[in-house]
Amino acid sequence: MAKKKPLPSELNRSIYEQLFQPQLSKADLRKIQILEAAIDTYAQLPLDYVSYEDIARAAKISRPLVLHHFPEKRDLFATMVKFVRAKMQETAVEELSGARPDALARFKAYINSTFKWLSTQPDHMRVWIFHFYVCASDPEFREGHKELTEIGMKRISALLEQGEREGTLSAKNADAKAKSIQAMITGSLIEAISENDPRAWDSIRKRCLEQTLMIAGA
After folding, report:
1. Quick one: fold of 24-71?
2. Where exactly are the structural domains of the chain?
3. Which of 86, 94, 103, 211 holds its CA 20 to 30 A away from the CA of 49?
4. Going by CATH, does the domain composed of 78-218 fall within 1.10.357.10?
């Protein structure tokens, strides 16, 4: 029997619900097809060189159909970024659901989930890095980025607070620690994808885990 996929939790519904209905419609499925094709395209071409024709070709559908769902390229890019972040959160949910319930085990599962996401969705990470570049010069995308990353920070803060109650982690200055931990994760993922050598990713993951545990007071 095929393994049943976990239902979306609050951790990833917070982004998914901005994009799709709880029960995916035919239109939602078509949007996902377009978004996945756009991710493949943006991971290989600079923003100014990506055309609707490129995305339609990758999705194996017509250009007018892409335009029907995403009339503005800016909206397509913003939705694609949210989709990438939602998939990252989905991986985190799956890893957390399979971990022991104590905070220390869940914290480690959360850190490891980011590298699992990288290993299974490297093009998603490339798009996420490109999003950083766009945020540097676009206030609207920068504000959207803040909203997306705050969801991850809240999850980390919650794990620190659970660990404080259990005596395994420190929740002192939890928000500041969560921000530092998130920055450490992002930096490690960028280092890994820049290496472009999956054989080096595990050592980067272990170093990231060690350093984030130190920040968390483990």
Report:
1. Arc Repressor Mutant, subunit A (1.10.10)
2. 24-71, 78-218
3. 86
4. yes
The tokens 């969560």 sit on which residue?
Answer: 178
pTM for the whole thing? 0.82
The C-alpha atoms of residue 26 and residue 20 are separated, in whole angstroms, by: 11
Please list the pLDDT of the chain residue by residue as tens digits (218 residues): 334 333 344 444 566 666 666 677 888 888 889 999 998 888 877 666 788 999 999 999 999 999 999 999 888 988 988 899 888 888 998 899 899 999 999 999 999 999 999 999 998 998 898 888 888 888 988 888 888 888 888 889 999 999 999 999 999 999 999 999 999 999 999 999 888 778 889 999 999 999 999 999 98
Question: Two tokens at 94?
Answer: 């799956």
Q: Answer yes or no: are the C-beta atoms of 178 and 153 closer than 8 Å.
A: yes
